[in-house]
Amino acid sequence: MIEAAVAGRATVEETTHALSELPFRELEFAHVDTHRHLRTGFPEVVLGEGKTPAQIAAILNVLRTGHEGGGARVPVFATRVSAEAAAAVLSAVPGARYLPVPRAVVVGETPAPELGRGVIAVVSAGTSDVPVAEEAALTAELAGNQVERVYDVGVAGLHRLIAHRETLAAAEILIVVAGMEGALPSVVAGLYARPVIAVPTSVGYGASFGGLAALLGMLNSCASGVAVVNIDNGFGAGRMASMLNRNRTPAT
Predict the structure, then answer these.
(1) pTM: predicted TM-score of the whole model, two decimal places
(2) Which of 15, 121, 242, 251 has the fewest Cβ atoms surrounding its Cβ within 10 A?
(3) Is 86's pLDDT higher than 80?
(4) CATH for 119-245, among 3.20.20.70, 3.40.50.1970, 3.30.950.10, 3.40.50.300?
(5) Cα–Cα–Cα angle for 19, 24, 30, nearest 5°?
(6) Run of H or E including 19
(7) pLDDT tens digits, 206-246
(8) Most distant CA pair in the chain: distance in Å?
(9) How do the domains of the chain map onto residue ranges?
């Protein structure tokens, strides 16, 4: 199909469509989707939790080389990777690096922030929410977005949030991460005319029920413009924000 495109017998659109229909790379324990970035604009991401270091490394090596064995064109990464597992993965995956706060293994350079039409601001209620917030921020950055971080500005001291009002008002999309009672997304959505992607975290004492209290609080928000992802799902929030922020203006 590539030869047909080069020879002019197939258009770029036809070639892209054909490539997007190609299958996966089959491993003993996984079917690795090597062409997801052609269909969705972002490669398959490896959930490290529940996988052995050898499995994580094998999947990352397939993704980084691509279906046809070429070099990686987009960064790939694994989430929820412990420091112990990461040590083994790094030794088996060339060019991999470990980011301990979001617990992510990344292969490939972070692209220039040129694919989004505006800034994505990631806001955390507390410092304990930062690992989830960093997963969201990293995901958005690897998708080519400019990201601003505003951390530890929860409702227990709203003056901290107001101090960053110019940054938040200038952002295109707001990702708001909170545990405990999960009130911060409602406050932010009531102050700024921007879409808010709310991320409940499992941070909190017993009656928070591992993030369920925050999840229900966010789903029952009295503020409009709040969409909610699953508990601790920073990756999902980062992807949704990236898709909403995508610059669809053709390059010149």
Answers:
(1) 0.84
(2) 251
(3) yes
(4) 3.40.50.1970
(5) 160
(6) helix 12-20
(7) 999 999 999 999 999 999 999 999 999 999 999 999 999 99
(8) 65
(9) 2-107, 119-245
